[in-house]
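step=encode ok
step=design start
structure_in=
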């Protein structure tokens, strides 16, 4: 990583259908269906909506043989309709489904935490992918590490890297280079550090595999967009990332313009900013530069803070260099002006530019100068950026999956219903997960969890512990509220 300027990480070319990724190609945008993959009509219609929104790659879950086999019908109908969209099969617990899906799609995604490696199953899948020209994604999830990895490393960025490298070494041993790797987490700090550690590990071993970026379970609305922009933007600023997905608990086609905006925002990052003390920068651990415990927003700035404003088109590098070159530990407020008239554009750009400075422990305050917005909007955006960067919690955080074909209930409606009853609470984290595949793990740092257990049934968690199993869905939110009250975390709305 070059601290002085923006430089795209070198990655070799991987072909996903008609899409080419790698450092010589544009960053590709993708999304994922939330329709039942066994339903051809619904799945095709949604893939086409996602493609029409601008995504070149679309992922579909294939949790069983039926879903894996039906990918043939889905792909055939897409091609008949004139869509050349690259298709990806998402595989979890059943390796046999990966071999079925590989007959029909352009890429297969497997999760090392849920995929068996005994009896040469990975090698056999690689051989099949090579024969058909199918790419492979090694998709590590923070919340679903293999037990043997978890027992030794815990749910840490280091453990995620160990998991990924095991699989990448097999791919290299088999001389198979059509591989993409991802390190996704709902915690932006974990996610960013995991990707940085992975890139370091790959560089040590001479690997140049492309990288897919994403913040899992980001939620919805402007909060979900800001959280995604903080995590993805931090890595794009590092020059890391060859494909991205913004995971929102909304219609999947809504993800595409957000992702594309981030891609476009990083096309031009000019300027060289000298860093006199690179040893002060800690890319893979959180080290606070100053003694300020709670970062401030623009209307809380006092005389103790030094304001550092970016005026270049590479704000992250400019501000980072300025802070690293300071010889004292004077608290710093980072400032940037945005002339956009809509709140979403301001929020995305500010989160991408400034969020990483808090993830890296460099900044102590944020000032989003947005003259087209009212000050209440600006303050909300600033607070959401700080929360997404894990440095100041000011409102309830919802760790909500974007849903997929595995989801066991209407997660968009449920998230809205839970928000309507709990958004007044302070400093709580509530996980809302569609199924158990990644649910318990990805919401591991949540205070409370609401997880689909079966059709029409919900299991509730307090932290990592199950409190109630198989509650009828119609009663589950009431039970969640009762659980929050029983643990002393409830406050009546003002």
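sequence_out=
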């Amino acid at each position: 990583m070059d601290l002085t300027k923006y430089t795209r990480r070198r990655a070799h070319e991987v072909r996903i259908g008609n899409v080419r990724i790698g450092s010589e190609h544009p960053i590709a945008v993708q999304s994922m269906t939330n329709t039942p993959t066994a339903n051809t009509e619904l799945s095709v219609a949604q893939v086409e909506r996602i493609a029409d929104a601008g995504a070149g790659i679309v992922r579909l879950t294939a949790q069983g043989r039926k879903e894996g086999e039906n990918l043939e019908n889905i792909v055939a109908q897409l091609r008949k309709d004139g869509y050349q969209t690259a298709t990806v099969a998402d595989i979890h617990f059943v390796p046999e489904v990966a071999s079925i899906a590989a007959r029909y799609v352009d890429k297969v995604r497997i999760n090392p935490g849920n995929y068996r490696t005994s009896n040469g199953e990975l090698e056999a899948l690689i051989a099949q992918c090579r024969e058909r020209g199918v790419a492979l994604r090694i998709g590590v999830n923070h919340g679903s590490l293999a037990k043997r990895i978890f027992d030794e490393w815990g749910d840490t960025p280091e453990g995620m890297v160990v998991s990924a490298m095991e699989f990448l070494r097999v791919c290299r041993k088999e001389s198979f280079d059509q591989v993409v790797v991802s390190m996704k987490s709902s915690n932006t700090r974990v996610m960013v550090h995991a990707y940085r550690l992975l890139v370091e590990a790959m560089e040590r071993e001479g690997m140049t595999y492309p990288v897919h970026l994403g913040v899992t379970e980001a939620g919805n609305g402007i909060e979900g967009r800001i959280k995604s922009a903080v995590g993805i933007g931090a890595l794009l600023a590092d020059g890391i990332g060859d494909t991205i997905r913004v995971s929102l608990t909304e219609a999947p086609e809504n993800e595409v313009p957000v992702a594309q905006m981030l891609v476009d925002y990083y096309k031009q990052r000019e300027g060289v900013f000298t860093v006199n003390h690179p040893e002060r920068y800690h890319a893979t651990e959180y080290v606070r530069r100053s003694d300020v415990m709670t970062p401030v927003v623009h209307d809380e700035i006092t005389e103790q803070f030094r304001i550092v404003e970016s005026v270049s088109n590479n704000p992250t590098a400019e501000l980072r260099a300025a802070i690293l070159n300071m010889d004292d530990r004077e608290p710093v407020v980072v400032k940037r002006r945005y002339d956009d008239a809509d709140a979403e554009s301001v929020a995305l750009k500010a989160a991408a530019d400034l969020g990483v400075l808090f993830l890296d422990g460099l900044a102590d305050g944020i000032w989003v100068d947005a003259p087209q917005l009212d000050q209440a909007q600006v303050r909300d955006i600033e607070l959401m950026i700080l929360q997404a960067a894990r440095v100041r919690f000011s409102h309830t955080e919802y760790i909500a999956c974007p849903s997929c074909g595995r989801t066991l209930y209407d997660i968009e409606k449920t998230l809205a219903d839970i928000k309507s009853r709990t958004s007044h609470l302070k400093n709580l984290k509530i996980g809302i997960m569609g199924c158990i595949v990644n649910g318990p793990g990805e919401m591991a740092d949540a205070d409370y969890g609401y997880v689909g257990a079966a059709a029409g049934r919900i299991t509730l968690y307090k932290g990592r512990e199950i409190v109630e199993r198989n509650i009828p869905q119609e009663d589950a939110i009431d039970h969640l509220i009762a659980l929050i009250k029983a643990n002393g975390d409830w406050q009546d709305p003002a």
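step=design ok
step=annotate ok -> The radius of gyration is 22 Å.
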